[in-house]
Structures are given as structure tokens and as C-alpha cells.
């Protein structure tokens, strides 16, 4: 029996379908990107949206937070943004003679890091511990973040003046990198003749909550991955490490992320097992930003080459 069709799980399945339908009504004509975003959240990953302005990156982040009933904070990254502006600061209180920690916007359910590559590397690195360990350390004190916690970051790949490229260690913390791209003609006409997206966002109703999201994550972890499927996944990892045009291949952490995302994708597809097609659907958005080219080719091209070269046994 499918992992999401058992009788006691049916209401959760229905709520998940309603959640995806709601986000698709706001972000028109992007069902694949919406499914990828849901996959990332259910798998417990962070999401990097890389595209030109005005295609719906911020709208998607707002819609996800509203649909999952997650507390939402948005930080506009600029060159003068300080780490304390994100994680918080300890302030001395004369009355008590002690320092009191004032948490920053990172203490939320979903943090939108808008134009993340416009902040300095020092400020970008303030997210590293939070994204990796769900905690931040200030003045030697560790503060745990509420669960679930997600970062959705955006950046414009074309306007690079005054930007600081994300280091490899930061990129690796994003499970998926997506491009929303321009809408097709039908979706664009619906945008032009429909309601304002801000009005639609204000009308969104929570379909799931943090507890349901954690339950979905646990369900996804129970999705079966066969030995043959794991052989295929490992073959892709190995091929990335010996490819002549790739300077640094995929790490074991990337392999774990791919498996976790594939399980979440299978869950969303109504199956209790992972198929090679799930790996293939996720490989480019998961692997491309992690591959370091040795020559001129970009990560997307290299990821597609690996998919073409590695056969499914």
C-alpha cells in the first residue's frame, strides 16, 4: 500500500494536495517548480531561487510560508548588512547588570534572504551555522532555532555589479536551486487579467502547519529505495568525480540530499518507493550548483551530461 494512501494518512494527503493547489493558483504555470519547492521543504532542505526580477521568486516564498502556516521574515541583503542584523545581538541592560540577547529575523519558520549575493561574505556566512545545524552561536552562547526552519534565498544571475558570489560551502547548504523563468502565454494572460498577486497572497489560508510538515518529512524518510536505485545514485556520484570537465564532483552530503529529495518527490507522486525517474527529475536542480567546472561549461550542462552518460541498470 502506498506510503500516503493508508486510511489514517488520507487527511494529510488531502491537505498536501490542497496546499500544492493553493500555491499553484498564486504562481501560475509553474507546477514543476512548485512541486520542487514542496519537495525541498518536505525533505528538510533550503531553497535557492536564481532568476531575473519579477518572475515570482518572492511570491513563491510568501505563498509557501502562508500555506504551511510558518512564521515569515524577509531580509533584504545589502552590502552594509551586518551578521547581527540577521542573527541578533546581545545588549547590556543597566537595570540587571547583564547582557540580554535580542533575537534577529533568523528566528522564524521561513526566512526569505532576498538578493543574498549582495551581502558581504561575512554576512552570508552568518547563515551557515543556522542552515547546517539549526542553531546560531553569539558571544559563546548557542541558541536553537524553532523547528521547522527553512531558508529561501534569491539572487539575480545577470546583474552582478556589487555582488559577492556565494562560496561553495554556502551553495552546498541549499538542497535545490531553481529558476522560475518567464510564464508561458496562457499563464501570462491569466496574470494580466487576474487579481493582483498581493491580494491573492493576503487571502491564502494555511493548509498545513509545522507539525504536519514534520510528519511528512518522517513519512518521506520511510520511502523505500531499492539496492538497484542506490546503485544508480552512486554511479551518478562516481561519474561526477571522474568527469574530465568537472574539477570537484558531488560529495557524500550531496548524495544524501539527492536521496532525501527523491524520497520526498516520490511521496508527492503518491508512491512508497523511489524510481530512477525521481532521481533524474531532481538531479539538475540538486547537482548543478554543486559541480565545479574545470573548463567553460556550466553546472547545468554538466549535470545533464552526467544523466545522459550514466545508464539505469
From TrEMBL:
**What are the ATPase AAA-3 domain coordinates in residue numbering?**
46-176
Task: State what protein this is by name.
Answer: ATPase AAA
Task: Name the InterPro entries for this protein.
Answer: ATPase_AAA-3, CbbQ/NirQ/NorQ/GpvN, ChlI/MoxR_AAA_lid, P-loop_NTPase
Gene that specifies this protein:
moxR
The record places domain ChlI/MoxR AAA lid at 239-297
Pfam assignment, any one: AAA_lid_2
Amino acid at each position: 500500500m502506498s506510503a500516503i494512501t493508508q486510511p489514517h494518512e488520507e487527511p494529510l494527503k488531502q491537505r498536501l494536495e490542497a496546499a500544492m493547489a493553493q500555491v499553484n493558483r498564486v504562481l501560475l504555470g509553474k507546477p514543476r517548480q512548485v512541486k520542487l519547492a514542496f519537495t525541498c521543504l518536505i525533505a528538510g532542505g533550503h531553497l535557492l531561487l536564481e532568476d531575473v526580477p519579477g518572475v515570482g521568486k518572492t511570491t513563491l516564498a510568501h505563498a509557501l510560508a502562508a500555506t504551511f502556516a510558518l512564521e515569515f521574515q524577509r531580509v533584504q541583503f545589502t552590502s552594509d548588512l551586518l551578521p547581527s542584523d540577521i542573527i541578533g545581538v546581545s545588549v547590556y541592560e543597566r537595570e540587571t547588570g547583564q547582557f540580554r540577547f535580542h533575537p534577529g529575523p533568523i528566528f522564524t519558520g521561513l526566512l526569505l534572504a532576498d538578493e543574498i549575493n549582495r551581502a558581504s561574505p561575512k554576512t552570508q556566512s552568518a547563515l551557515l551555522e543556522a542552515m547546517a545545524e539549526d542553531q546560531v552561536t553569539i558571544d559563546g552562547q548557542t541558541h536553537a532555532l524553532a523547528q521547522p526552519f527553512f531558508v529561501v534565498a534569491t539572487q539575480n544571475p545577470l546583474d552582478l555589479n556589487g555582488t559577492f558570489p556565494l562560496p561553495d560551502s554556502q551553495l552546498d547548504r541549499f538542497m535545490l536551486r531553481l529558476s522560475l523563468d518567464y510564464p508561458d502565454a496562457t499563464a501570462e494572460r491569466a496574470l494580466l487579467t487576474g487579481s493582483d498577486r498581493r491580494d491573492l497572497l493576503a487571502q491564502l489560508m494555511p493548509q498545513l502547519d509545522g507539525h504536519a510538515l514534520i510528519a511528512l518529512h518522517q513519512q518521506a524518510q520511510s520511502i523505500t529505495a531499492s539496492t538497484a536505485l542506490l546503485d544508480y545514485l552512486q554511479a551518478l556520484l562516481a561519474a561526477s568525480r571522474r568527469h574530465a570537465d568537472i574539477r570537484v564532483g558531488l560529495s557524500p552530503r550531496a548524495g544524501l540530499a539527492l536521496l532525501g529529495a527523491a524520497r520526498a518527490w516520490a511521496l508527492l507522486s503518491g508512491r512508497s518507493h523511489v524510481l530512477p525517474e525521481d532521481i533524474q527529475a531532481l538531479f539538475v536542480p540538486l547537482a548543478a550548483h554543486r559541480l565545479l567546472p574545470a573548463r567553460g561549461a556550466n553546472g547545468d550542462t554538466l549535470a545533464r551530461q552526467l544523466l545522459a552518460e550514466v545508464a539505469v541498470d
